[in-house]
Design a protein that fits this description.
Shape: elongated
Radius of gyration: 17 Å
Order of helices and strands: EEEHEHEEEEH
Helix content: 10-25%
Largest sheet: 8 strands, mixed
Number of domains: 1
Structural class: mainly beta
Oligomer: single chain
Strand order of the largest sheet: 2-3-1-4-5-6-7-8
Distance between the termini: 58 Å
Length: 140
């Protein structure tokens, strides 16, 4: 199951909404392997994507083809025991880089949601060798 929390209705034109709406929040549910590619990097930055990892398909292998960026808001969850799930963020520091995934939380019926307190930019500060081009202009 794929769930996209979308604040921009134009982003998810091909997705069918589930009957769950709250204010300006639209939730979509589709099978990850049936998504119409190519997705735009904008759609992965303006919507929050929550993807279920199952044994039926390799979620990370499918996500390799997605235009993820360091600003992507794509998360996966997988069942680690009965009633307990692990939540992982997925992004790429730059388009040619392999996917990076970090466990950022857990959810269970007993304890609820437990997330890291480290900010997204602290977690993603390692640009993995990205070479930046810079120019210096003298100011008088």
């Amino acid at each position: 199951m794929t769930v996209g929390f979308n604040t921009d209705p134009s982003v998810s034109q091909s997705l069918q909404p589930v009957n769950l709406k709250s204010a300006n929040l639209m939730i979509n549910s589709v099978n990850i392997s049936s998504l119409n590619l190519p997705l735009s990097s904008k759609s992965l930055e303006t919507a929050v994507w929550l993807l279920e990892e199952t044994q039926q398909h390799s979620t990370l292998a499918i996500l390799e083809a997605w235009p993820l960026s360091i600003k992507s808001t794509v998360f996966t969850f997988k069942r680690i025991s009965q009633g307990e799930f692990e939540i992982t963020e997925v992004y790429k520091p730059f388009p040619e880089h392999a996917i990076i995934s970090n466990v950022i939380g857990h959810w269970s019926w007993k304890t609820g949601l437990s997330m890291t307190s480290v900010s997204i930019w602290e977690r993603r500060r390692n640009l993995s060798g990205l070479q930046l081009r810079i120019a210096i202009t003298p100011v008088s």
